[in-house]
Design brief:
seven-stranded antiparallel beta sheet, Jelly Rolls, single chain, eight-stranded antiparallel beta sheet
Length: 560
């Protein structure tokens, strides 16, 4: 780790598990409305759709004065249009109820059902949050002034008469311990109180011993995690080359005439609240005319009272011009098709408000966000969110040196401080394996294709002489496969080296084909993060009649 001083070495704690919100809606089974006639409706507020957008004032038609009819109207909207899942209808005394789960992990406002033309009787409806939506977030445990980690291996004595008087040992049980001293802000949401609760409950926690994480974006790719949202009126081309020679960039293209179509990232509010925020990103033109975009920072609240942050913009490097058409919308034009431009957008004041939920960073392709056409395209890469007003060099969030694992909190001590500060110490004893940089063991038993019997090759696919070879002149869709590599829907780091490539593409098969992952196929080493829905590692050639050879492949589970 590149440590400059003690404050650069932190212990992070995962503050909450990633999970969607589950809401139970209970309606009185019989006559929940007053003076009901045919053609009535109700109003649904705080709907979170599959893009993460919030809708209010949505009407639902009710055909009868019954709880089942109301629940049917709600399901017709939430399930059929907005991607919610719903349990079967169940009974609770005089009520009928359904449990609704929204589409994405993360904090969302609570669904609200109110009278429309049909007026509810008092007490006829109840809304209960069974599980609050939460993002998976690591935060520094207070503000560390020191942090340490120790890793231990017990030795087992295997000395025998043949040891010639020397003691002999083999490695036994391994363990680790972490500790931190910190200056704690008593107004901070994470710190002593959280550690004490963990100590009292006896539950294990996920902790990370790490270089300082400056970039609050959780992926190097500008897509691929639950925090990224792509408008339905945009097409995205993934795995383009980024400014650092990796393949994490994307082309965003408007698919039909529309307005306000944005590609955006949502950062959990607990990471930025009470601070100024700087968003930096790299941009490139698609062609000489598709060389313009708009940028915007928006603050979302649980109450639906979302608002724009007043911001300023600055070009850090590259060609093009930046301007401020309004207090919230920032414009970048004159981008190059051959070189990258880096710009930063900074909030003019700290992020604050009531019932805040997320900070949204929005990128609009085109010269007019209110009048977008299919000619509007932009290429972007390497987004970074930092607290403060400066943009430091880009930090790849997947390459921050760290150790992480599960541990018990075994001690917490607090010393009274002055004003709103206190000093505390905490120590942790590991309960599991310690993972380096968040990656588990190598899961591929033949990473260099030395053992053809390890693989199942078909349709012209061949494993021989240290290569996996894909040649469509030998079969319709050459493929190699190894069964039972993945746990379905968990996150993995897939790293592979393309030795030979003349044209076409390869894909990682993910079930029916609709969700197959197109993999970079140019010569070189590529790293891709995937969440496969099936358990088999299966790669196939998908186009052209020329060759692609792989010389190595690695799969490791990502423990975030």
């Amino acid at each position: 780790m590149a440590i400059k001083n003690a404050t650069d070495l932190l212990v992070y704690k995962k503050t909450s598990p990633a999970q969607p919100q589950i809401t139970r809606i209970k309606i009185k089974a019989s006559t929940p409305f007053k003076d009901f006639t045919s053609g009535e409706n109700i109003i649904i507020n705080n709907i979170t759709d599959t893009d993460g957008d919030i809708s209010d004032g949505v009407t639902g038609s009710v055909s009868a004065n019954s709880g089942l009819s109301v629940l049917s109207a709600i399901s017709s909207r939430l399930v059929s249009i907005d991607g919610y899942t719903a349990s079967a209808v169940d009974d609770d005394g005089a009520f009928k109820y359904i449990d609704y789960t929204n589409f994405a992990d993360g904090p969302v406002p609570t669904l609200e059902i109110v009278s429309g033309t049909a007026e509810f009787k008092a007490g006829a409806i109840e809304i209960i949050v069974l599980q609050s939506g939460q993002s998976l977030v690591y935060q520094p445990i207070a503000y560390s002034t020191s942090a340490s980690i120790s890793m231990n291996t017990d030795l087992r004595d295997i000395t025998t008469k043949d040891s010639e008087g020397w003691q002999e040992n083999v490695a036994g049980v391994r363990s680790f311990e972490m500790s931190t001293d910190a200056l704690w802000d008593v107004n901070n949401a994470v710190g002593v109180e959280s550690a004490v609760n963990d100590l009292v409950s006896g539950d294990s926690v996920d902790i990370k011993f790490s270089d300082r994480v400056r970039n609050l974006v959780d992926t190097e790719e500008v897509y691929g995690s639950s925090e990224w949202f792509i408008s339905s009126t945009q097409n995205i081309t993934k795995h383009l080359e980024d400014p650092f020679g990796q393949f994490t960039a994307a082309e965003l293209a408007i698919s039909s005439s529309t307005n306000y179509s944005a590609h955006f990232y949502k950062a959990p509010i607990q990471l930025v609240e009470g601070k100024k925020v700087t968003w930096s990103l790299y941009l490139k033109a698609f062609n000489a005319t598709a060389n313009t975009c708009f940028l915007r920072i928006r603050i979302d609240s649980d109450s639906g009272s979302d608002f724009d942050a007043i911001t300023s913009i600055e070009k850090i490097s590259g060609t093009g011009t930046v301007s401020s058409p309004s207090a919230s919308f920032k414009k970048v034009t004159g981008l190059s098709t051959s070189s990258w431009t880096r710009v930063k957008v900074t909030t003019d004041s700290v992020v604050s408000g009531t019932d805040l939920r997320t900070l949204s960073l929005l990128l609009y392709p085109g010269a007019d966000y209110a009048n977008q056409t299919t000619a509007d395209k932009i290429i972007t890469a390497s987004w970074q969110i930092e607290t403060g007003t400066t943009a430091s060099d880009y930090q790849n969030p997947t390459e921050v040196d760290c150790y992480q694992g599960k541990a018990f909190v075994n001690s917490v001590s607090i010393d009274a401080g002055t004003e709103e500060n206190a000093t505390y110490s905490a120590s942790f004893t590991g309960t599991s394996e310690l993972f380096v940089n968040g990656l588990g063991h190598e899961l591929v038993g033949d990473p260099y294709f030395d053992d053809p019997s390890y693989w199942t090759a078909s349709n012209g696919g061949v494993v021989e002489d240290g290569y996996a070879k894909f040649d469509t002149t030998q079969g319709s869709a050459p493929q190699i496969q190894r069964n039972d590599i993945f746990i379905a829907n968990e996150k993995y780091c897939l790293e592979y080296t393309v030795h030979t490539s003349t044209a076409g593409t390869i894909t990682l098969i993910d079930g029916s084909g609709a969700d197959d992952v197109v993999l970079p196929s140019s010569v070189g080493t590529h790293k891709v993060y995937v969440n496969p829905g099936i358990v088999h590692l299966s790669i196939k050639r998908t186009s052209a009649t020329t060759l692609i050879w792989l010389s190595s492949i690695s799969v490791k589970q990502v423990f975030s």
